[in-house]
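Class prep. Write one:
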Amino acid sequence: MAHEDWRELLTQIAAAADGIALHHFRNPALRVENKHDVSPVTQADREIEQAARRIIGDRHPELGVLGEEYGETNGASRARLIIDPIDATQNFVRGIPIFATLLAIEDRGEIVAGMVSAPALGTRWSAVRGGGALRNGQRIQVSQVARLEEAQLFHAGLAAMTTRRNAVVALAMRAGRSRGFGDFYQDVLVAEGAGDVAVDFGIAPWDIAPLLVIVEEAGGRATSLAGERTIYAGNFVSSNGLLHEAVLCALALPA
């Protein structure tokens, strides 16, 4: 399947997800439970992933699926959908509009297409390999900031930084400005040039799968702390590329 065709499939799934998410957002009847790791899950999370799996079953039953809520389902092909039905669920539960459905196609171990749909923000970011990165249909690109002292650094919650907290704080002190956005939002801001570096820890593959291709297609870099192009390391650094090696070196210092 051509990479550009994946965008159409992800758009269909995102449209269904947006409708479900907005139906439940700020709805006092929303049901919220805690999973075994004490993170929240809502009926919206489950309904979105169920809808995505139905669409895949109808349109591309050969695809596998890896989802946050219902795990891994193997398909006949070597490609699969990776889905986080609502990234930033805690924002969603608290009525904060910074949440999104994250969708990616992984083919033979490579992320070839990705989409981030944030309906309460009215914004959708997407990318396919070789096709550039888009925000609401318009091309985006990373910044050209080349000095850490001039950079805007984003980080996730400090509590998740169980081993690198001191290194991240030291990096933030060197940066021109730092903000704790976390979740998907910090990485799409890097992709569109509104920030220069983002660092995250304690994450699963579905938390970052589309972000890798979106940042790269916008001209940036996205790796693990060890510099690997992977969504399976449990940590993630995205940047405009110019700052990437300096950031990895800074984070490699003793915590």
Notes: The longest helix spans residues 3-24. The chain has seven helices and 15 strands.
